[in-house]
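Case 500 in the screening queue. Each case pairs one protein sequence with one candidate compound; here the compound is flavin-adenine dinucleotide. For every case the pipeline is the same: read the inputs, emit a complex structure as tokens, and attach any notable structural observations.

Predict complex for case 500.
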Amino acid sequence: MSLVLPQRPEPDPQLRSTLVRALRDFLPPDAVLEAEEERRPYECDGLSAYRQLPMVVVLPRTVGEVRQVMRLCHSLGVPVVARGAGTGLSGGALPLADGVLLSLARFKSILDIDPVNRTARVQPGVRNLAISEAVAPHGLYYAPDPSSQIACTIGGNVAENSGGVHCLKYGLTVHNVLKIRLVTVEGEIIEVGADAPDAPGYDLLALLIGSEGMLGVVVEVTVRLLPLPERAQVVLAAFDDVEKAGTAVGEIIAAGIIPAGLEMMDGPAIQAAEDFVHAGYPTAARAILLCEVDGTNQEVSEHILQVRAVLERCGATEVRTAGDEAERLRFWQGRKSAFPAVGRISPDYYCMDGTIPRRHLPEVLRRTAELSAEYALPVANVFHAGDGNMHPLILFDANKPGELERAEALGGAILELCVEVGGTITGEHGVGIEKIGQMCVQFQPEELEQFRAVKRAFDPRELLNPGKGVPTPRRCSEYRALPDRHGHDHVHGHGEDPRP
Ligand SMILES: Cc1cc2nc3c(=O)[nH]c(=O)nc-3n(C[C@H](O)[C@H](O)[C@H](O)COP(=O)(O)OP(=O)(O)OC[C@H]3O[C@@H](n4cnc5c(N)ncnc54)[C@H](O)[C@@H]3O)c2cc1C
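Case 500 output:
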């Protein structure tokens, strides 16, 4: 393992038994998991190379119980890691050996749907897709749609500021959540945001969305809903060159069209998805773009013609408009299944997540291929191209000595490349433990100190998900000194930091 995991003290057996006894005073027996085999399913999230058994797992059912758990842990000085569905890819929900793993899985209720105001009030353990399913009878849906939407929870989406195919046009989680209720580290309840726009005071909602469970525990979310479009249509374009596909992405947006989704897959990803779900993809292509437009019938018809023209001008070898709804869904099923599909062709894969300004797509794809050759590990690309949100999937075999470390080093080099061209080290998967080193490249020491000050304001004793998200100054010194670090310190891209 090459990531430096948070250094934690050994769990204190005395403290553990005091904690468990106190938890059992107010939680039912099935809400406190102590036995090793019961804790085992919680030992990792989607970044499964890193595992840690939590000291104890709690599964409360009510907000009152969450508050009591937080109060108790606060009084005993025990750290707490919140967990939704555990699909996170950056180790955000990785437990601590001396901490409580607080699962929100039992908070599964949709509390209220308001079709007139187009909002829904939901508990944090509600699955992302379940919101759209519940509001569909009202002609509404919840726009942010991570590919993991069948499993991931809205609480996890809020904590990670998750995105998805539709976020190019409709925004990320932060643009689609109006209000949250939060249990603080001391067990108090605060409500942040408002049902009406423009709440006064600091915009704490924006601060909390994407805070990775480090500032509080989300126990209720009010989401904004959108009317289902009259029509959605998708165009698939094949290219014989990845860079041409990258250029086409910028050209579509430059033509004044904001697609509802604009996704790209390269050769290895196309083949894997096709073998897995038989989406009808052209397997000889070096890259495909999926471009969806939505709106009124007339808008969609006009935009489809424009999109096709741009794609052809950019050198697409084939442009196919889905013939019917079944084909449209099949095209998307291939894209949405691409991660598990790639999982079938390689013993292990490591999914990176960085964002770049769109105009650098062709260059970054080319340089990613060069890095892939340099590190001798194949990379499959499948990503939210319209947002410039890259997801290089690095294929490796953890059973071969050194391959995991090489995959991580390649991942780090790709992220630093994103920073170099003016991008960021995460588009939607968060920092967690995974990218804590690259935070030292993305930000200046003074900026990181502001992050630490925010953390101290909410959680002075560092009990909420400690060791994640924001590196300590020492961690940054160690990261910069790593002998095998590929990149350089390109803070804010191209070394062009204009500040003194
Ligand atoms: C196959 C696959 C595809 C994916 N595709 C996408 C994608 O397209 N877009 C995208 O953005 N992400 C994607 N992800 C990543 C992941 O699904 C998202 O980050 C998701 O939001 C995590 O939700 P979760 O419920 O699983 O959270 P978890 O993994 O359980 O937790 C994630 C973080 O949120 C915190 N947390 C969870 N619940 C709460 C709460 N109630 N209060 C406070 N903190 C909390 C945890 O402490 C942790 O830091 C994908 C993952 C997989 C495995």
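Case 500 observations:
- The chain has four domains: 13-103, 110-227, 231-341, 346-481.
- The mean pLDDT is 93.
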